[in-house]
Design goal:
Elements: H1 45-48, H2 50-88, H3 98-133, H4 144-158, H5 170-173, H6 194-206, H7 213-220, H8 223-226, H9 228-236, H10 243-253, H11 255-278, H12 288-299, H13 312-340, H14 344-382, H15 386-420, H16 422-480
Helix pairs in contact: 2-3, 2-7, 3-4, 10-11, 11-12, 11-13, 12-13, 14-15
Length: 481
């Protein structure tokens, strides 16, 4: 859109006090339209049509889904190559060999491809934002939060071990068999300093941060986001389709499967990172089996104390494992409580049978009270045996206590049944009452209308009768005269 100004006289000058251009020197109005983009840019027919915009939006969503899948696959490939390289070197091949350089080159190449895919994904996201908001300037979409998130993603995805590219020492490049019990945690030569080993260890562990792409892939490939009915109903109810909503749907549909997959993946990842941290010290937690045991007992918050981490990195991993274990235990308890809870029909059956059983016991308790009253009355009339009299008094008090206890239990059962089960029944009763009231109201209206009609007929009949009587009286008066 361009700025347009319509003036009555083109050669008039605008008053200096009115710098916004709304009123000129002669008091005439001026129409000012503020442009949202640079002058000279116009909307093309493809961008302006709603149908073309919907088509472009659909294609962009498919491209985003495809790019997210490729990015997740590339991130997982880089992590698997890093794990493979850390396990094979220096057991299978020595540092500085062609195999080590090849695998690290593949890791760096996958990292570069991942960065390109992340940039392409955000490019498609910005285009989708432009189409949704009907704007043509891409800089409108580049807010500070978006720029910060993109920069953070690029930094996280760019992290990978790079110390292998440094020049190894000559003693490591000479011939010889691979060392089976190396004291280094990664494929590094003995010439590297300890701080370089710690940095390489940190970079290898931080590669697992690339798994944040899982939540994006789950969101873009979920049936909730792809379903048009979900989106339409959600837009009517002001629901944002975020990963939190999709996770809640998954936890409601398949809670046990979702928790099992997450727990198993977390156990394996944490155990391998603990082994990577502890392998430098040549301790028992440097083995995979012991690391799995330590992660399991830490995750379950048992903590037998038979094994413990020795390095700072291992302690941090165990601390995070304990925190995640507490959170997953709480979710597991909630899932098990929901699974063990009775549904509506089961509650109806259970409360109905319990009501029948307690009602029978109340009747028996009432009969026992009456029997003990009769026996006490009979012993009172005889006045012979005071022991039987006291015995029947104790039996009567016990029967009264049992009867009151059963009545209280029955009342509690009725309260629970009314809270849990009878709400729908009460709603049905209220609906039936409302329908009966409506029918009664309609019948009353019909009767009132019929009564009004009959009253009108009676009024007309009285009027006709009065006219006939008047005529008859007029006819008799001349005869009397």
């Amino acid at each position: 859109m361009e700025m347009t100004a319509r003036l009555a006289h083109l050669d008039t000058k605008v008053d200096g006090r009115n710098c916004d251009g709304l009123v000129n020197h002669y008091g005439e109005t001026t129409e000012i339209i503020v442009p949202l983009s640079h002058t000279g840019k116009r909307l093309s027919p493809i961008e302006g049509g709603n149908l073309y915009r919907l088509r472009d939006r659909k294609f962009l969503l498919e491209d985003k889904k495809r790019l997210c899948a490729w990015a997740l696959g590339t991130a997982l490939l880089g992590i698997l190559l890093m794990v493979l390289h850390a396990e094979l070197c220096p057991v299978v091949y020595r540092p500085g060999s062609i195999y080590a350089l090849s695998i690290n080159g593949l890791i760096s190449f996958s990292t570069g491809c991942l960065l390109i895919l992340i940039i392409a994904f955000h490019y498609k996201d910005i285009r989708l934002f432009i189409i949704d908001h009907n704007q043509v300037d891409w800089r409108i979409a580049m807010t500070s939060n978006r720029v910060l998130s993109i920069s953070l993603e690029l930094v996280v995805c760019a992290i990978h071990p790079v110390a292998i590219y440094l020049r190894p020492s000559m003693e490591d490049t000479l011939g010889g068999k691979p060392v089976q019990n190396s004291s280094t945690p990664l494929c590094l030569s003995s010439s590297h300093k300890e701080i370089m080993l710690d940095v390489e260890l940190l970079l290898s562990a931080l590669m697992f941060l690339r798994l944040y792409l899982v939540h994006r892939a789950v969101l873009l490939h979920s049936k909730v986001l792809l379903s048009a009915s979900y989106r339409s109903i959600g837009s009517l109810n002001n629901i944002n389709f975020t990963f939190r909503f999709v996770l809640k749907v998954l936890m409601n549909k398949n809670p046990a499967r979702t928790l099992l997959v997450f727990i198993m993946f977390f156990w394996l990842s944490a155990a391998w990172m603990l082994r990577l941290c502890e392998r430098q010290q040549q301790v028992e937690t440097g083995g995979m089996d012991t690391a799995l045991w330590l992660i399991a007992i830490t995750f379950l918050t048992v903590g037998y104390g038979d094994v413990a981490p020795h390095t700072r990195c291992g302690k941090v991993v165990c601390l995070l494992t304990g925190v995640m274990g507490v959170a997953c235990t709480a979710m597991l308890v909630a899932v098990m409580t929901k699974k063990l809870a009775l549904n509506k029909g089961e509650k109806h059956v259970h409360f109905f049978m319990m009501d029948i059983q307690i009602s029978k016991r109340i009747r028996h308790a009432a009969a026992n009270v009456l029997r003990e009253c009769w026996l006490l009355h009979r012993t009172t009339q005889t006045k012979d045996n005071s022991g039987d009299h006291r015995h029947h008094q104790r039996c009567l008090l016990e029967a009264i206590r049992v009867f009151r206890h059963l009545r209280l239990k029955h009342r509690k059962l009725r309260d629970n049944a009314s809270e849990m089960v009878d709400l729908s029944k009460m709603q049905m009763i209220m609906c039936d009452l409302g329908a009966n009231w409506n029918s009664s109201y309609h019948e009353l209206e019909q009767r009132i209308i019929s009564m009004e009609q009959k009253l009108d007929e009676l009024g007309r009949s009285f009027q006709i009768t009065s006219e006939l009587l008047t005529q008859a009286l007029h006819c008799r008066r001349p005869d009397h005269r």
